[in-house]
Amino acid sequence: MLDFHTSLMDVNARDVGFADAPHDLPPRTAAKQFLDVVVAIILLVLLAIVAAVLIMLNPFFNRGPLWFVQERMGYRCQSFAAIKFRTMTAPRGPDRGAFDALETERITMLGRFMRKIRLDELPQIINVLRGEMSLIGPRPDAYDHARVYLTSIPGYRRRHDVLPGISGLAQTEVGYVDGLEGVRRKVDADLRYITSRSFRLELWIVWRTIVVVLTRRGA
Please, are residues 39 and 33 in contact by the beta-carbon 8 Å criterion? Predict the structure, then answer.
């Protein structure tokens, strides 16, 4: 049994030597790209079914648009438009800052359920088919927040040496985070993933993702 969770907790996010080590990695291997595309195409059927159901439920439990599109930071720190099912109401004040607490009060009833089982992430298979994301990789942050993290968290830039993912080691072992220390913990996990990338690790993350979904450990 792989004990990645324990090893991740022992990594220090301030370890600049580890975080900023020289690197020259491809965004993803040819085999991973093939699997990403095949699985994403299969999931298009599920996406269509879920979207149809949400169109009927949203007027009652999640009033507003079906989709949520946000500029996020991807491979090589380039921006792209990430697509999700909307789970929150529109903000009533200034946008949330990079280190502000999660705005859980804005999550709708239906949105909370979707987040619990990570269903809100499903539309990102479109980003996978566009070549902007992978199924497994570091979770892409909002672009404005990511620009702040680049200047305040050692090693943050390195997590963009690979394609961002719908799920990843940080998502399964750390979960949703806020605040400086929370983001550092997430970066720890992302750097561990990038350093230790292997088919075995990818399969382990897929398994852990299934466990998280089934046990409803989302935010």
Answer: no
